[in-house]
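Chapter summary example.
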Amino acid sequence: MYFAALLARTEDGWEASDTELDDVETLSDLADLAREASPDEDTVLVLIEQEDSWFGVVRIDGEEDPRIYVSDAAAAARSSYGEILLTDELLGRDPDDDDLDALDLDGTEDGEDEDEDEGSDVAKSGGSAEAVPHGPVGDAAILDDLGVSEKELKALSDDALSEIADALGASAVLETVR
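The structure predicted for these 178 residues follows.
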């Protein structure tokens, strides 16, 4: 089960709204959705969680590039919403290398069968040689100036979004959209 919400910081405090991510396909789409929630270009946090598996925080400050933190990249990679957050940049991949990853560079000629025992698991699956790491990725200092330190963010429990909202003083508004 997924939960996603937007927390927009305003002059009057935090405002929360639940959000549908069905039409969001890229990080740019998500950033645009967040920016729409705050016409004054205030800070907007996109909070996403998959129950007992992972959570992510995307921070949008005006027109700046989104900042992202994901609690468990490997778990998020198995989720369509998580894949939106796991950009090549976040995972330390060079986006220009995608073409090379798709090539079969195992030394066989076109038309030759590859001996099953000689091929790596990565080549057999057609996946990238760069595995998605288990554990957190991204900007762990994403909420430092809002009262949640890097150490606290990495130590959050299964109810991470509620704990973040509580630290921000926004737990009541988050609960209204939950």
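To summarize the output: Residues 111-129 have pLDDT under 50 and may be disordered.
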